[in-house]
Write a structure and sequence with these properties.
Elements (H helix, E strand, L loop, with lengths): L1 H12 L1 H20 L3 H28 L4 H7 L2 H22 L3 H8 L2 H18 L3 H7 L1 H7 L1 H16 L4 H27 L7 E2 L2 E2 L4 H4 L13
Antiparallel strand pairs: 1-2
Helix pairs in contact: 2-3, 2-5, 3-4, 3-5, 3-10, 3-11, 5-7, 7-10, 8-9
The structure holds protoporphyrin IX containing FE.
Length: about 230
């Protein structure tokens, strides 16, 4: 029984299992592709890109709230595949949009609609982030790499604005975005409170890292292994 448990744990912790989990929505979308329902593919791929974005950007404030949580530590260690999945679903979304709208004149006209203009900006940033989400870029860019990865916040804001503007009257969409907004407000307020308190109190520990260096855990990047999150 113990061996079965260990094997199951190893299977659940395997990187491939996590990628398979991330690919599940795409597998369901293939049914739409097979029956030519491209509109559903655009909608579903956009929605899952945005949802994985919300999860990825929620990890840092959630880690601050629950530094001892094993689930949070498990998720933080998988920030890179999560981030890359955002880009891959956004890419599927973009390609299915171009297939549905092959007329580039219409694509050019669409470009100037605010919700689509923001989407293009988000997509370009996501592409840059995904392309540099590897150890080689990390070594090559050095400290500039971290500031580059901070663009994920801008990409996130643009993509979520695109989602909200595209589905303005859809309460379900607001329900999915509101927790991330609340968590980011908590995080900023916490940072300001700490700054106002100055270095008076000794830094508390946050998931193994010093809370005055939350960036050790909170790096938004999808490559930086949270070395401070020791199991
Ligand atoms: C060049 C880039 C992009 C273009 C041209 C684009 C285009 C569109 C269009 C035309 C729609 C409306 C679909 C419809 O109602 O039929 C849409 C919806 C949406 N897009 Fe994008 N998009 C882009 C990038 C993104 C990115 C980067 C994300 C997220 C990370 C995203 C997430 C969404 C979501 C969540 C929806 C709402 C889907 C629904 O109807 O429920 N899009 N997009």
């Amino acid at each position: 029984m113990r061996l079965v448990g260990q094997r199951l744990l190893r299977f659940l912790n395997a990187r491939l299992t996590f990628w398979a989990l991330l690919a599940l929505p795409a597998i369901f979308m293939m049914a739409h592709v097979a029956s030519g329902r491209l509109g559903y593919v655009i909608q579903d791929s956009g929605t899952w890109a945005a949802r994985f974005f919300v999860v990825t950007m929620s990890l840092t404030p959630l880690m601050m709230l629950f530094p001892k949580s094993r689930v949070m530590r498990w998720l933080v260690k998988r920030r890179r595949p999560l981030g890359v999945a955002v880009f891959l679903y956004a890419l599927l979304h973009f390609i299915s949009y171009l297939i549905r709208e092959p007329n580039l004149t219409i694509v050019a006209i669409d470009f100037w609609r605010i919700e689509i203009f923001l989407a293009w900006m988000a997509f370009v940033l996501l592409a840059v982030l995904a392309i540099t989400s590897n150890e080689w870029s990390l070594r090559r860019l050095g400290p500039r790499w971290k500031s580059l990865q901070r663009l994920s916040y801008l990409a996130g804001g643009l993509a979520l604005a695109h989602w909200l503007l595209t589905k303005l009257d859809d309460k379900i969409v607001w329900l999915q975005v509101a927790p991330l907004i609340a968590l980011q407000v908590y995080r900023i307020a916490r940072g300001l409170r700490r700054r106002r308190a100055g270095a008076s109190s000794p830094p508390a520990r946050l998931g193994g890292a010093r809370s005055d260096r939350p960036d050790r855990v909170s790096c938004p990047c999808w490559v930086c292994r949270p070395t401070s999150v020791r199991q």
